[in-house]
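Sample A.
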Amino acid sequence: MVVCGDDGLAHRLAAELRGVYGEQVTLVVPPAERAARPPVVGRARAASAALLDRVVNAAVGGRPAVPGAAATAASPVGEPVLEALELTEAVLAEAGVERATALALVHDDDETNIRAALTARRLNPRLRLVLRLYNRRLGQHIEELLDQAAALAYDGGGDAYAEASTTVLSDADTAAPALAATALAGTSKVVQTEGLLLRAVERPLPTDSGLHTLALLSVNDPTGGDQEPRLLPADEEVRGAAGRTAIVLEQVSTAGGPESAARGAGVIPWLNSLFSRRLRWSLAGLVGCVLALAIALWAVTGIHPVRAFYLTLLDMFAIDDPAVGAPLGRQLLQLLSALVGLLLLPVLLAAVLEALGTFRTATSLRRPPRGLGGHVVLLGLGKIGTRVLTRLRELNVPVVCVESDPEARGLATARRLRVPVVLGDVTQEGVLESAKIHRAQALLAVTSADTTNLEAALYARTVRPDLRVVLRLYDDDFATAVYRTLRAAYPHALTRSRSVTHLAAPAFAGAMLGRQVLGAVAVERQVLLFAAVDVDGHPMLEGRTVDQAFRPGSWRVLALAGRSDTPADHVLAKGDRVVVAVTRRGLAALR
């Protein structure tokens, strides 16, 4: 297999294929990327790196040099590394694309990946292609184009064509749901897969509700008896873990149900965008006063309710005759109606000014409004931050963004969604205060710089020690040290760290192996995957019941594809397709 990329995802993916799935991998990176520290995945530790280097160097040492490519070396985790400034046809041929089973193109630039994919499809029509593209619509067209090219090479079909699939993925789309769910306390983790909607929640054990326990979270023991998170624990282990927080599969339902219907609920969008919340409440209060006065006039005079409402409006606008000689109650109601009419004038003026201001600033960035609270402060509006912002707004979560680059890609999205933005360097004093960090429910730091995210988290904790903090950190060792230190310093505040490459790499690896990873749930620094598997001919699944097919720590059958009511005693047979929760090593075993 060949992996081409220019950032941490390429290293993470190559290490995942090598350390978890045991695949032979060639890594193609720009020359400047050699200095980057690749992640250690699985059990590919430094102790075995020297042996892997000798084996790989013996296997690839005799290859001829190619213009534009440096000599082949070996990375610290054992895969051969080819350095190249551009992914030309000669470089791809030197990497072995003509003989490869799969090629992953995970450069940060969409155009680079598309150009290399077209060249690779011409070199090897049966090649399984996996592309990283941020543009969703373009990705759909490119996927259809490359599949059509493979079909023409094999006259429209055959087993070889079936292997020559093209999969377009986005690390931002893969990681955004997990990052957004982590930032919201009590938010369920929702994965839509194979016509099913899987909803998982965090709750302490024991629990009577819930279908399955997907993971046990870590335990911080001051005496030194820390317990690491456990994915897909055995039922006996779950029963003995009373008081420990777990991720429980709460519901399996068909897609398009209540979850989708609830997403469109809320206030009228145009009213919400035109007028502030305070003004809407003021208008609602005045309407209530008018109704109350109309009801009181109806009760006092006994006239028809519609006429009572009409007279109240005339009194409010001071166009009715004075109630001279009328009963005392009628006179008092007329005075109260005139007073409400006076209060209505400034409210109407404010509504006009706010509406004009909304139209005037429709193309400018909003500032955080006074009195804002219970929101999420999102730091960084790059590719990842933009997708996270979209996901949070789909959940109707109030957001304030902080971005230092006035030309950031996510500013257009924030402007379109009418999300407040603070432009400034988060490391400078007063920027987080402008984002109302002291009244926020969470800080979500997703810039590409680990130190910037950490500095923002530490400063936010000095302002509000109990703030929920989610950090995007690439390095596993650094993330573990930060997590343990913050957890010890702020035991009553929730701290989580997430790596985008760690969340995205399993989906890219699964696509290279012909498996479709349909979703992922982050369990601290680990990832639990959801995949669809055909039962036909699989000895670990076929002929077994759903309960018998469970392998603790590896995989668990959740339901038949498209069916939310799969009984535990259902016998899996030929032709069944099941949705499984699976670990990374479990996915390798299911091959």
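Sample B.
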Amino acid sequence: MLTTQIKKSLVQTSTVSFFLLSALVSQAHATNLIVETTAGKVQGIAQEGLFTWTGIPYGKAPIGDLRWKKPQPANLWQMPFDATKPAVDCIQMSKEGTIGAEDCLNLNIYRPDNNQQNLPVLFYLHGGNNQFGTSAEFNPQVVATELNAVIVTVNYRLGALGFNPINVLNTGDKVEDSGNYALLDIKLSLDWVKNNIKSFGGNPDNITISGFSAGGRDVMAMLISPIFKNSFNKAIVFSGGMTTSDKDASAQIFADRLAKLAVRDGKKSTQASAKTWILSHSSDVKDYLYQLPAVDLANLFGDAGIRMSQFPHLYRDGTVLPKNGFETDKYNSVPVIMVTGQGEFSLFARGDKRFSSAIADNSLATNTKLLNQYHFVNKYGSLLYSLFNVNQSAKTMYPYYDAPIYGVELAIGNNEVVTGSQLAPLGSFHGIFLSLWDKTKFMPFTEQLEKLEGTIDTRKNLNGYLASFLLNGEPTNASQVVWKRWTPENEKAGESLLIIDENKQKSIIYMSNKPYTYNDVIDLIEQDNTVTTKEKHELVTQVLNGRWFSEPLDAHFAQKAQ
């Protein structure tokens, strides 16, 4: 009996001790995740093998008189900021309606759950045509652990709140008057990271800026922007490319859109008079724009797609971006990797109104005529888009770029036998790299892909190259081929691009080049007889036209029509 009581007492004591110890460990863990920043302390959380801090303000709310102004540093806070909740997204349109808020200048920080310090920093900008998207674009668990890096993702103003070329908004401050408010947000957030990331275990002198799609195009803009000089150490551009807009021409397009609101609100009686009024320097116009509901502004360019002509942004103002854009001879030269897929246009083809309803009701496969048209735009749009993402940029930059340029092309997903029938129509689509970072990102298209040993090997090898690049600016991988720089000489020799493919068992990685030019693609289009002449004209002028990558195509067929 006594022995039983003693045993019971020991068990109770051990249980209490265990829970006390657990509580002490948890308390110590929580204390370790309270980090001091220049604005105050922030409380993080440990989850999925990461330490995370989300929604940290880096700027004041750009509302009221601050709507179209340079962002201001966030106000100081006294109590620890709760950085365990999801970040507030910037206001934007979505399938469910308008979401987010104007008060959205915040960032997330993720790092491996270890005690290492001085880790490389990957600063990431989301995609979405600079109109939508969020800092939670992907689950950073794989990236942070496999790259052994601190990952920073950022929210910044979008749409007509992030870019606005209307001159009546000018204040006399040249940086502010650029109209590139989103870039100014990104600069402030990057300054915040530079000043604070050491407290989170990151190296402020080893920051790699990166971004996907619109975020990648923003990164490209940062490479030519004087205001970003000496702000970062390396760059990775995922499906980006070179895009800028003329500010005065952009103001005309914005005025057309805003004029509709002015007529709706009774400011003017006709579209023409409202546009003239919007383009005037009347203080009444400025007052009107500042009092417009953010919802109206978030939805102003809902039909833009990936057409700069519909939502022009990244203005060549002469201060934030040079007047001659990417023709400049003054780059912020740092080692850069540019990434593309071979099937970059496939998702956009699916979303085009010509095909979207047939895809939605699964009738495309049985409509031979429409299916041929889909294959036509998918094929030539992807050939042009992938060329635009890497080779065009590299050729433009190279004469004036004083740092290594690397190019990589993803070919995974093109073989139905390997990666399944759901992925085959898309191929190596726009953003397929994210499926190598976040396994659930593009389900169910990538369901078969994620089951393959070859995908595991591809993920390991791609991340191996990237981890090396983050650490020292050279994408090396001891178990794989040497990734050579993009140079005209290597292009001529057939080894300027790293190609990444896979079979069911392993990755297939080798050096090659882009074997065609814009003119080659245009010749192929002219010779193509899978669609009728009338259909071809419609596809070229209604589906492929006005895209970021389609300028040579548009010029050719415009001249042909004369």
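B remarks: The mean pLDDT is 92. The radius of gyration is 26 Å.
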